[in-house]
User: Fold these one by one.
Assistant:
Number 1:
Amino acid sequence: MSGFDNRFAPETSENFAAYLKVAATTLQRDILPELAGASSLAKSNANEVATILWRLNWHLSSLQIKDGLTLKNIGEQEAQFQSAYDEGKNAEQARIDIDEKSLERVIADHLGPDAGQFEITDFQIIPGGRSKLTAFLSQVGCEALPGEFVLRIDWASSVTGTTVKDEFAVLRMVYDAGVTVPEPLFLISEDNPLGFAFIAVTKSAGKPLGDIFQPPKSKKVALNLAREIAKIHAVPVTAYNTIDHLAEIDVTGEQLLGRLQEFEGTLSALESSNFISDEAIRYLRSNIAKIGEKRSLVHGDLGYHNYLIDGKSVGAVLDWELAHIGNPAEDLGYIKADIEQSLEWDEFMTAYKDGGGPNVSELEVEFYQIWSLLRLYCLLIQARKGVVMGMLEDISVVRVCLDSIPRLLQSLSSALVAASSAE
């Protein structure tokens, strides 16, 4: 397998061939049909790009042929290229193709008499999201529902393997506890004619501003986040202990050691260890005994991509699928590097504690910052394997593999340097 050294996130010809296949298929299947009204030049150029992507895929795939190309097998390889090119044009949507009338009937049946004259007037799937599909829905005729609301839909190609059915219970709990989240409206399980589960929530004010690598640089937003995270961590134990599926994760020394072994196993199985991940594992193993067994509700994915920001305020905290009982330092470590681009960490922690957040040590935040980055790296290399095996044919997942993995490793490197300086 031919390797490509890009400093610390090595890729292979097999990986690149898979990325190019998804990009070419997306262009042919999803983009070109939408260019019907475009100029002939635009359509021609888009077709040229699709051909280039497929041909690059073919060249990289050829590197994997054990004995190379020969006079005998080159015709076979060219036929395979043409077949892949044709299949790309006719490929089915990677994401769920939702029939609005069928969706309308399923929701009306669920609501029963409260449905009234429920009718969908607009339905739009929103781009983004690598674990669930999100859609905006407008309706008339049903007084039991707002005129506009949001659907969050289970997707077979999710990189997390979670379900909205579990998320709905958590969302109801934190909404009742006063956390700024969309109000949950209803849950419909997958045993319906559409064949997938989905939840409906109210539409919140604001919009996402940035992600875990490029957060908005706003002191006021960061201070508001401190208070919001404090509310999450202050949810009473009596509330989250009522949710059976909400597991305790990565709290005790035994749990942390077990998970660290899982990380090592994943890195080894996928041949994705490097000097950065090796140093992260060494640091974590040497510090596990120093971490206190604190427990609270933990969101598990508190990057800026999961906030709606309304002006300088938090309009909503989104995507609760990774919520669990854990150490509150996990959420704080996850977001620390983002916050430090807007204000001093001590000022953030003062606002957090003033908002009711529990006491956590600097070492615990440092530990879980490195822990969260390594966990994310393991998750992304598993997603990358899914792309290479043809199980995840989604362009947003490919973008994450190519763009986020090296950036994630750079962030992990910076966190390790900071930790060594503090020792």
Note: The two ends are 40 Å apart (CA to CA).
Number 2:
Amino acid sequence: MIIYPAIDLRAGRCVRLRQGDPAAETVFGDDPAAMARHWAAQGAEWLHVVNLDGALGATQSQINALHRPSNILIQHPGSSEPESAAQSLERELPINLRRLREIRAAVTVPIQFGGGLRTLEDIQLALELGADRVVLGTVAVDNPGLVSEALARWGADRIVVGIDARDGKVATHGWQSTSGVDAIELGHQMQALGVTRVVYTDISRDGMLSGVNLEMTSRLGDVTGLKVIASGGVAGIADIDNLKAREHYNIDGVIVGQAIYTGSLDLAEAIRVGHRPLHRRSAGLVPFRYDEGQPQFLLLYNLFFEQWQFPRGGTHRQENEVTCALREFAEEAGLNVRKVFKECRSELHYNVVIRGYDIERTVVYYLAEIEPGEIRLGHENHCEARWVDADEAWELLTETAPEQLPALDAALEFLSQHRV
């Protein structure tokens, strides 16, 4: 998971805005290139550079000056001296594009650049000034055909779409207008055009240090299949930890701004978390009841994994295993637990691949006796529940989820040795 330090440019200075409000600006420096060197020295693998001054309005004259050989001078009408290509660029380029060029000269770190890109000429100019990829925002809503043209010309690795949302609806024109387009709907539309990566920003959290919108970020990556770069609200290392735990929901990275500028997040530490191997710890129950003196076990069918499994779920931060197991069982099955046998504990370790991500899994199961009642499936991935005897449980798990067999074996051995 890539950590992107943000360098937001307004009138050539490095600034941060709260919720995109130009009136709520904090200036962090007059030398964005020096700021880029600072983040690169701390290990930044990418930089996220944003133009906050509105539409770029690239011209063919600017592009021509960029390509003009340095030994060719042009005498403009009314000027006393011929002008070099560098002088033409200095005169013609908006100040934030000059800053982009300076950042490119200052560091070798790849640059992701967005803000004010409305035309193919804008995109071309930004890429040729040093951006490795660009983020298209307003134009993706107003002119999706241009997104298709850009993808055909430069490829999906260099064209990213920015989905900036307020209360789930896409905002445009520097967040000053809110459309009626749903963020998930726009994600589906962009994926259909060939976009593979988006930046998702929760505007209400941007610059507020109020915590990232983990649920919406995860959902966008999950339901669309797009790689999602999270943005807005990162307050500290806990947000990076939480995003890392959801990386397999196609969370490709996270943009960090206010937190690294104010010191509430250490960039080097965040990068270490981003590089950490994926590990998911879950807890659940091996639910049983007696029927005519013989134990029956409850299995749920998980559509996502296409397997039968004992009820389980990921542990929350600072949550103990039994609490997690009981919480997940109540959510997934809707039954009451008569007793948890903590002495019958099974800890399973195995690797899985989820959405192309390799994940080390640890699942802890506790044997639990369940009270009579009607099963109420509470998770969208579960479509069927069965009470089965030990032989059928063995067969179903062997066919679909053999890694869970040790938990069943431990339960059977415990029940054979203890009168429950």
Note: The chain is about 35% helix and 35% strand.
Number 3:
Amino acid sequence: MVVEEASQLSNTISSKKYERSNNVICLCANSRLSLEQKIENLVAFLKTNNDDCLGDICYKENVSSTLFKYRCSVVSESCSDLLKKLQKIELDNTDIEKSHKIALMFTGQGSQYVGIARELYEQLPIFRGYIKECSQAFYPYLNESLTDLIYSDKADKMILAQTNITQPVVFAIDYAFGKLFIDLGVKPDYMIGHSIGEWSAACLAGIVSLQDAAKIVATRGKLMHELKSSGGMCAVFTSGYKLEQLLENFGGSVWIAAYNGTHQVISGEVTSIEKFTELLFSKDIGYKILNVSQAFHTPLMNSILDEFREVLQEVTFNSPKIPIVSNVTGELMTKPFDVEYWIKHILSPVKFEQSLKYLSDNLVDTFIECGPDRVLAGMASGMQACNAKTILLSTNRKEKPFETCLETLGSLFRSEEHTSELQSPPL
């Protein structure tokens, strides 16, 4: 009998399974000089150990270092890439002088697309686990898997655009990114969501369980999808104040659905929207008709409220463990998030601009968008009322998702004194 050495193929497959397209390394020291020396030592190591596993190098450094006030971080795709970036790194503002206030922003409907953050879903088990957790919670109400709707070969953008599917999908992505940041040590001082995004904030803040949130969001989307109306929406590129004046003669037919700062959104009957756009055109005000079939955040939603209220009454709402700035009021929510609040949430305009101003007035200077794409971050960047020094993304449809997410984690490590130990995402 001949005995041969066991094949190494299975080990190769196993190691490939956990390779990532990018890794982040977070370096810190108790002085600038010590940080420079640490970088020099790592450069010397990489010059002679270029074939080592980049993930192992980053993980070891990220979990073994004591947190000091002088910090830097680098996102790279290989040891060679890390070496080049370390050799060119400029250590500006490496000293953590003060803590910052952080707000997580949760994106709303319209940000969905096929394959949202696919790279993270495929390469980061912890993120994939959050998505699957949401998929299981929604399955009894959708009879379909969210993971299939987003990531399978049969994923269809037209199906994702249906409100009964859109809202669960956006909720799940928002929730997954928010939970990822929190579990990795980010400590938000506030949360804010845009329309359906506020349900993700409510769930992560402990107001509702994931199972209850899934039931509510699925019902909300289904009722809105099945609503028979001739509603429409339109983005208007002017200030909220000026838009309110223009709408005075359209009372009862066109309403403001969202104050977004860089633009506002109106909602109402299609024929009334068309008449209003004629007024906008005559005054040389820019606008864009939105591809929706309902007049969200208006009294035209009234017919679904009784059935929605019945579902809400089955749920216990808790006090938030993380403060939430309300869509309805544009201020910190001090009253209970009860049934009637969530009814108003459907009918009232989204006061996103007012909410950001409130947060800025309360010294929030770091905003992180948790959602499928760069939507709220763009609005916040363009608002004069928002004094944010740092606006970060969870992902960006136009960029590599993993790289974008790691750049945000690295930025938070460099700037935040009150984040807990920031580790490489666990496998």
Note: Residues 184 and 425 are 7 Å apart (CA to CA).
